[in-house]
Write a structure and sequence with these properties.
- The structure holds two protein chains of two kinds.
- By secondary structure, chain A is an all-alpha fold.
- Chain A has helices spanning 2-6, 13-30, 32-97, 102-122, 134-141, 149-227, 230-273, 284-306, 314-317, 321-364, 376-394, 397-447, 449-482, and strands at residues 278-279, 282-283.
- In chain A, helix 3 (32-97) packs across helix 7, helix 4 packs antiparallel against helix 6 (149-227) and helix 5 packs across helix 6 (149-227).
- The two termini of chain A are 77 Å apart.
- Chain B is globular.
- The chains are: A mainly alpha, B alpha/beta.
């Protein structure tokens, strides 16, 4: 077909192609203005459409940005509220545990202080006073013995009496001092008791002070969130991303745990539900094993919800405490039963594997399988794994909650990036289309440069011809004016 | 929206009502007991053991001999469909193996004629009855048919969706003189099987049995 068209003017393709080219250039020259208009309008249309698209995407981006910010702030607010609530719970616990006993403690301290005061009063050091006449007697006893022997004897007796009285006074003083010491000794444990009580009070107050500092800090961040500060938004977004990656990692680990669990119970399940029936492309026994694992995960979710560790189901969280405790008991019991079932299935799997191995060996003609000495170790290991894995899977609820919450932020960020990229591409396409249309116009002119050149030459020669005529006309006008 | 829900429900209903595709496998092994093939029984035993180790719960297996008139239930040595429970299936496999061992030790004298076509017709009948999803006819023979006088077997047979596999096809003395006889024999059976709606394969190296039926 192409060859036929090519050789329509001449049998030689070169000549025919040249004729075609001349025709093409001529036609293109004739259609120059509409072609230029078409190229320019097409370029402009693409440019305008792309700009409109980019503008609408920018609006969408703005609204999505706002939505992301709201989501992040709401999550942060919720987390902050939860933290503040927890701090208040702790303060409440401190107040209930320690400060509820404060009146009794105060009474105890007051009693101790009274007792100490009484003891102190009783232990006041009062030196015994000598009798009033003792000074007179002492003066008499100190009269120099110069004369009579009788007088000397009397004076000696008086002196002895003085000495005796002094001794008795000393004795009484020592006795009273000893009693005071005893009283003071008895005060020592009371002081210690008082000191301990005051230390307890101090610790409690210190704890409360720490909690109040923490509450203040949380309240500040809560206020920042409420004010919608950009710094807080960025911090919360980054925190969400971290949460997302950590929870994803933990969920991947949980998936592997689930697969191991599945391998443990899938084969013995065929002993229970049969190994020949299928639901779609999957064996019923495999589906039954999966269902058990799913039910375990679901029970784990409910257990964590009932314990108020996660908050995925508000209806469980808002239950009254009695109901919640019942739910904890029920879910835990179901989980324990399923774990026991899994442990027994794991044991059955071991027995089946052993039987299968024995059959294979007998079919292979290697004789009777020898009983391994420590065969019970893998059996026990499988049973323990079968029992523990359901409980381990129950904790999936925690990373799952983090994953779901952080996924909202991550999806928002991803959508934002995608929209941004599309808007940029649209702008790029629009701008390029406009530039390409300009280029195409120039290219068009380049193709028809020969007729254009001829046109230019003709136009310039016409202009040149017109110019002398105009000059002549001007000079005749001037001459007429002069005359 | 309502239309979508209705269509989905209808599609689900139709899927549920349709007959489910069976995932079970059924194997029918034809053992040539004519002439010198009785000496090859130990190889046949190995094949049977491989099949027993490979087949699972729900699968079926039958072993039949090829003799002068093979289109008969009497030629079926042992047959079993394995139970749903793996432990019971293992017991069935043990019993089946004992049956085969008994047959192999009891086979001393080969049959005078070889009716392969009759055996294949019997196999097709049995496999259809099992309703299995994958059906195999394994022929342990040199594929040289030698019919008793008066037996008619030169008519088209039907082996729809059945994989026919010739195992351990030994070369006859005449094949060594002119190998084209061997090729022609194989070609003839291949053509016949394809015309019957089945597929054809030859496995002479018994170590490559996993190419035929893989363990699940």
């Amino acid at each position: 077909m192409f060859n036929e068209i090519l050789t329509v003017w001449s049998s030689q393709p070169g000549i025919s192609a040249t004729i075609w080219l001349v025709i093409l250039v001529f036609v293109a020259y004739l259609a120059r203005n509409p072609a230029h208009a078409l190229i320019r309008s097409t370029g402009k249309a693409i440019y305008v459409a792309c700009r409109l698209f980019a503008t609408s995407l920018r609006h969408l981006e703005t609204s999505l940005q706002r939505r992301n910010k709201e989501v992040v702030l709401a999550l942060g607010q919720e987390a902050c509220e939860r933290a503040i609530e927890r701090e208040f719970h702790r303060v409440n616990a401190v107040v209930t545990r320690d400060l509820s006993a404060y009146p009794a403690l105060h009474r105890q301290i007051s009693d101790t202080i009274d007792k100490i005061e009484e003891d102190y009063q009783a232990a006041t050091d009062a030196p015994p006073l000598p009798p009033a006449w003792l000074q007179a007697v002492d003066s008499i006893a100190s009269i120099p013995r110069t004369g009579d022997a009788t007088v000397c004897t009397i004076l000696d007796d008086i002196g002895k009496t003085m000495e005796g009285a002094h001794q008795e006074t000393q004795k009484a003083y020592r006795k009273s001092t000893l009693e005071r010491h005893k009283l003071l000794g008895a005060m020592q444990p009371q002081w210690r008791n008082l000191g301990q009580s005051l230390t307890r009070v101090k610790d409690t107050i210190d704890g409360l002070e720490e909690r109040s500092i923490e509450i203040d800090r949380q309240m500040k961040s809560y206020e920042s969130i409420r004010n919608g500060e950009d710094t807080v938004t960025r911090t919360l977004s980054s925190s969400s991303l971290t949460q997302f990656f950590i929870s994803t990692l933990v969920l991947v680990i949980a998936v592997f745990g689930g697969l191991i669990n599945f391998q443990l119970i899938a084969m013995p399940m065929s002993e229970m539900v049969g190994g020949t029936s299928y639901i779609g492309p999957m064996r019923t026994s495999d589906i039954a094993a999966l269902v058990i694992i799913m039910v375990e995960i679901a029970m784990g979710l409910f257990l964590m919800e009932s314990l108020r560790i996660t908050h995925l189901f508000p209806i469980i969280g808002s239950m009254d405490d009695t109901m919640r405790k019942r739910m904890v008991m029920i879910t835990f019991s179901i989980l324990a039963i399923l774990a026991t079932v899994e442990a027994s299935l794991a044991y059955m799997r071991d027995l089946l594997a052993l039987d299968r191995e024995a059959l294979t060996q007998s079919l292979a003609g290697t004789g009777v399988v020898a009983q391994a000495e420590f065969r019970w170790i893998p059996s026990l290991g499988q049973m323990i794994m079968g029992f523990i894995l359901p409980f381990a899977l129950a904790f999936v609820a925690i990373p799952l909650e983090s994953f779901i919450h952080s996924l909202r932020t991550v999806l928002g960020i991803m959508a934002l990036s995608l929209i941004h990229a599309i808007a940029f591409t649209a702008r790029l396409i629009g701008g390029s289309a406009r530039q390409i249309s300009v280029m195409l116009v120039s290219l068009y002119d380049l193709l028809i440069m020969l007729p254009l050149g001829i046109e230019r030459l003709v136009a310039s020669s016409i202009k040149r011809k017109q110019k002398p005529d105009t000059g002549k006309q001007l000079s005749s006008v001037n001459m007429e004016e002069q005359s | 929206m309502k239309k979508l829900i209705l269509t989905t429900l209808l599609a689900l209903g139709l899927t549920a009502c349709s007959e489910p595709q069976s995932n079970a496998r059924a194997v029918y092994l034809l053992l040539d007991t004519s002439g010198t093939y009785t000496a090859e029984m130990d190889k046949a035993q190995k094949i049977i053991n491989y099949l027993l180790a490979t087949l699972d719960s729900g699968d079926s297996i039958a072993i039949a001999r090829i003799d002068s008139g093979s289109f008969s239930e009497k030629d079926i040595i042992a047959r079993v469909t394995f139970d749903d429970r793996p432990s019971t299936a293992n017991q069935q496999k043990r019993a089946f193996k004992d049956q085969i061992d008994e047959f192999v030790t009891g086979t001393k004298r080969g049959s005078r004629h070889t009716d392969i076509t009759g055996g294949m017709l019997q196999a097709s009948e049995y496999l259809d009855e099992t309703g299995a999803g994958e059906k195999y006819v394994l022929i342990f023979s040199d594929l040289e048919e030698d019919l008793k006088k008066g037996h008619i077997r030169d008519f088209p047979i039907s082996l729809p969706d059945i994989h026919v596999v010739a195992l351990n096809v030994t070369k006859l003395r005449s094949d060594n003189i002119d190998p084209r006889d061997y090729m022609e024999r194989l070609g003839l059976w291949e053509k016949r099987v394809y015309q019957a709606g089945g597929t054809w394969d030859v496995i002479n190296d018994l170590e490559r049995m996993d190419r035929l039926i893989a363990q699940r």
